[in-house]
Design brief:
alpha/beta
Length: 143
């Protein structure tokens, strides 16, 4: 079985890594972008081979060039600005939820310079319809 290389943005406690393992997906390298110290501690405890990369805001071409071929990108960008339960939501104008655009930028870079066949899984709350249309348009696909 071929082992895959994973890039996880907004990794949290590495639920994506856990799901891949439970599906018996063999992981070669798992690169995680996360800034919450407690989440990183949980990840490092449960998945000690995780390569912690820091904040998504620090991603740059030099860093991306150092990666091996990435087979899948996992991401769950912050939802505070998208959640319909927040009456004062700013949608993608919320600086936290605007980090979605960092995911898109990385996905495009990986497709162009690393692996044009890279797969991705982006999870988030269901935004309002206008925001969903923007996100679909930017990504070039529907959920």
């Amino acid at each position: 079985m071929n082992k895959i290389n994973v890039l996880s943005m907004f990794d949290g406690i590495s639920c994506g890594q856990q799901a891949l393992k439970e599906m018996n997906v063999a992981i070669n390298k798992y690169y995680a972008f996360e800034i919450n110290k407690e989440s990183i501690e949980v990840t490092n405890y449960n998945h000690p081979n995780t390569i912690q990369m820091g904040s998504v805001t620090d991603i740059n071409p030099k860093m991306l060039k150092s990666l091996p071929k990435i087979d899948i990108i996992l991401a769950g960008s912050p939802c505070q600005g998208l959640s319909r339960s927040n009456d004062k939501r700013l949608n993608l104008d919320d600086p936290r939820s605007a980090l979605f655009y960092v995911f898109v930028k990385v996905l495009r870079w990986i497709k162009k310079h690393n692996n044009p066949e890279v797969e991705f899984l982006l999870e988030n709350v269901v935004p309002d319809k206008s925001t969903e249309l923007i996100m679909n348009d930017v990504m070039g696909c529907d959920p």
